[in-house]
Amino acid sequence: MSRNYPIVLGWLLKKWPWILSILIVIAIAAFVFRTLTALSELKYGLTPPELPEYQHLKTEFINQNGWLSKEQQYDHQWPYHASQGTATLPIPYEWLDALEAPKNMPWFIFFGQEKAFLSEYIYRIGFINLNDVDQNLDSSVNYSEKQQLPLGLAKTASIHMPGLDRRATAVGFTCTACHTGQFTYQNTRYIVDGGPAMTDLGLLTKSLGAAIGQTVLSSKLAPFDGRFERFARKVLGSNYNVVSKAKLKSALQETVTKLAKGQDTINVTEGFTRLDALNRIGNKVFADNMDRPENYNPIEAPVNYPHIWTTSWFDWVQYDGSIMQPLVRNSGEALGVAAFVDMKIPKTLLDQPATFSSSIPMKTLYEIEHWLAGEYPLENYQAGQLGNISGLKAPKWPSSLPNINTTLAAKGKKLYENNCQSCHLPPMDSPDFWSNHWYHISYENDGHIKQTDKKYLHLTMVKVDKIGTDPAQSEVLAKRTVNTKELGLNTDLCVEIDPLQKTEEMQSPLQFVNVQDSAANNFALALGAVVQQTNDQWFEQNYITNSAQTELEGSRPNCLRSNAGYKARPLNGIWATAPYLHNGSVPNLYSLLSEPTDRPTFVELGGLEFDPINVGITQSKHVAQMNVNVNALPANQTEDYQGGFFILDTRQAGNFNTGHAFTDNPDTPGKIGKKFSHEEKMALIEYLKTL
């Protein structure tokens, strides 16, 4: 054998390049096989969506009272980061803080390091960067290393997270996440408290999922697992070791598995500035919390995030005028963005039924609502003066925008009185608004007529067949059903009855009914019952007195209604709330005042540049060209996202831009007034800037 050694060695020396090449090919093949195996195991999208670029700009708040701290105008800790007990993002805060932004292509995870997900990347999804505001406050402070949560995200301690065998600090939405607007004009970013957010929850889900998935993929590809190693060292800190790292790897994998199972079914893409809030709340409460997939409903009725100044004093809220009580509205919203609530269904005789215990801090919700509402606005009127909103006010047109043409606005005021006021009420600076449109709310309980101590602003409700706008959102509560068998619903709710339900003994259209479990429960009643029992559980668990409970509930009963149509709210601050119509299908006020056939078919959402002439969102040349060639593009098959922006196709059900029509054609659906000339539209727009 030793005699053959020189021969073998000589052969190896001659053939080593080939042998080395074969070994390299085998190693690459093995690595590719490991990668493909890891990818197949993940079963999750690892490629992030294309996003708009983020611009660091001078950032200003439009002072509106309400949200800002009494002690300091720019104290962003309240309520921008006030916890509502939610865990909207499906990973613990320490993971989110350590997570890198996803690579545009998953195969590049082996090369280089990305910035943090919570750095510039998350703001490309439409969130508001408070670091830019802080930079304006004190230029002597170095904020380059500062990494705080975006406006509207809050931390909540001790929340159970999917994929973890322990509790953790969660990150979730507050009401400000969806109800704080922004726009840019001439290199300045303006923040509108209470305005519609510019975020895209679908893109957030995909981006976060890609970032987590790429981290899991990296963990499976040692020694090329730099991304996971960096993540693990940040999360574990001084507790970093082989055992803790392996446990973290397993928890990451479990989280991605659960995310893959819970991906949404999208029939109508929401896009920037829109959310199918009612269906998402229903899916979270009745499909996820109850672990009943059959209760899931596809996303199909998106609405523009509503602006919320003045709403605390409305008799009914939501676009469809479906909810009366502020606490029910706010705790229902918290449940929809993943506050914990115990809704376990007993599976054996030994299992305990649902308790409806929750992570929602009801007192915090009340404080936020009080901050929004301010003091009772009719007190000044009753003292002989005009009423006044002391909470969050509608934004006033900034002096840094082009000046308002007062002569043109005076002409527009007359147009408003003749064409808009009958539905949207007189302007708030008129005595008529305060003297003729506020009423006590009356309802019947146990055969007795009761009424609220205070008066509330009575809003006009317009039936869908009259207003002619897209019906999808108005039908969600009326037509959807959910299976609540064995959940334990048993509570009284106030509902608006229809003629078929009315008896001769009933004196009021608002009646209390008992809601119990059913295999096909009306969605509106089931949701109202869940929220009521969740609130009641908190009251009981925290020993809240009856008088304090009444105050927390806003001194109003939990009244619900469905299929009432759409409400016409006052137009104060309407200039800062684009896009328009309830589903965000119209980009600016000029298009809204035009005949429906003259409105653009395609609307681009996600851009922040404000159009002060037409008043709304500036549309790009790309979407303008799409509207020129509209007949060349098939309906409902246009790519949802182009160049990082969302393209809303108004030919798709759920996205219709019909109705609310000013036209001379009597056959136009939703005709509410005569056709406006260009001059009349410009005059009315100029007046609307003043409200």
UniProtKB/TrEMBL annotation:
Gene3D superfamilies documented for this protein: Cytochrome c-like domain
Transmembrane segment boundaries: 16-36
Keyword Translocase: no
Keyword Transmembrane tagged: yes
InterPro entries according to UniProt: Cyt_c-like_dom (IPR009056), Cyt_c-like_dom_sf (IPR036909), CytoC_perox (IPR047758), Cytochrome_c_Peroxidase/MauG (IPR051395)
Domain Cytochrome c: residue ranges: 407-691
GO molecular function per UniProt: cytochrome-c peroxidase activity; electron transfer activity; heme binding; metal ion binding
UniProt entry keywords in alphabetical sequence: Heme, Iron, Membrane, Metal-binding, Transmembrane, Transmembrane helix
SUPFAM superfamilies with a match to the protein in the record: Cytochrome c
Origin superkingdom: Bacteria
NCBIfam families named in the record: CytoC_perox
Protein name: Cytochrome c domain-containing protein
